[in-house]
Amino acid sequence: MPKTFPIGGVHPPENKITADTAIELLPVPSSVVIPVSQHIGAPAAIIVNKGDYVKTGQKIAESKGFVSSNIHSSVSGKVNKIDSIIDTSGYKQTAVFIDVEGDEWVETIDRNSEIITEVRLSGEEIIKKCLESGIVGLGGATFPSHVKLTVPAGKKCDVLIINGVECEPYLTSDHRLMLEKGEEILTGVTILMKALKVGKALIGIENNKTDAINHLTKLATIFSGVTVHALKVKYPQGAEKQLIKALINREVPSGRLPLDVGTVVHNVGTAYAVYEAVQKNKPLFERVVTITGKSLSRPGNYLVRIGTPVSWLIEAAGGMPEDTGKIVSGGPLMGKAINNADVPVVKGTSGVILLPKDESERMEISRCIRCGKCIEACALNLEPYLLMTLSEKGLFEKAEHERITDCMECGSCSYICPAGRPLLDYIRLGKTAVMKMVRERNMK
Fold this sequence. Notes:
Layout (H helix, E strand, L loop, with lengths): L22 E3 L5 E5 L9 E2 L6 E2 L4 E4 L8 E2 L4 E10 L5 E9 L22 H10 L12 H5 L9 E5 L9 H8 L1 H15 L4 E6 L3 H11 L5 E6 L8 H9 L14 E5 H13 L5 E7 L7 E6 L4 H7 L7 E6 L6 E3 L12 E6 H4 L12 H5 L6 H9 L3 H6 L10 H5 L6 H21 L1
Parallel strand pairs: 1-14, 9-10, 9-12, 10-11, 13-17
Antiparallel strand pairs: 2-8, 3-5, 4-7, 5-6, 7-8, 13-14, 15-16, 15-17
Helix pairs in contact: 1-4, 3-5, 4-7, 11-14
């Protein structure tokens, strides 16, 4: 029987419209906008100026501090300006605007399609290469990969977990990547194992992707220590703590990290990016993005240059349907609605969903009926109705006591609530306030 996590979870309609659509190369736009903060941690510092000519793959912003990441140009051309933009999360940040002139790549990138499985770099060299190449978690969290691979003194990692779950409805970019780049992903897994100095890696994939499970299982027979595991279809199966519990039956304590239970989790997209960085010397400047929606004429999975306007991606998928009510960056449960289609695709953009009006309108909010469904759905055993109430009333000390910062913002509670309560909205508000309060307290 497929494995899963024991507490909570929901079963939204899958809507994997693009699961059978092969990855297509998206044409390079006439200009790109590349933000300098596409990762958790300190924004990168810009090292180019207006008027500079840059090549595809050239570093244009340098990481500042340990938890940060380099940023590379995804195109060749001239820097038009350095200015601020509103990103897909709705925050204002600095970005490099580049006008495209041809497509001249940095000479050191190996553009040969031959797959290289022999890993020649040492563990330390792999970590350095991930830092240099701007590799971050491509499952959505965008945590700098070199940080995850650096095991601190006193900690020990004995197993690597690879997340191929892709439990969010609509999204299929990881699914297609596993089918089309399986050998490269598995080589990336062995590279990550070498960096972490572990002899075992487990790849978890939900059971609605039997073709990917079968494909990687067959390929994995020639990769020492790598096994593929089918998981029950249940959201949020792809969350780190739930995936760890399902695969190795270890429970990450409140406020702790996977490394505290001897494991590190990386996404399949990250494993592929690591392969390209280490074996092909290619920085992270493009990624696979699902563009989908029930009314789109050409939904699909596209290999997209970072900085490409979302509007360019929508046009490639057949243009904006007339009945579009909302554009969501990411999945429908954890993603965020955007009000401007000209925002750029960034490293963390796994998908763009165009929801019809009849599916994008929230139901009318009514009083909590004390049904307890939000508690049953919470995979972290929290009490969402209580956290919403405490956040609404500004009782942040109590919210901290009730573990609001443990919330992974999966949205299961809001999805299941029969009263249409905006549980996640208020929990996000309260969580932000609590984290600010904790930072200020620690600075005293």
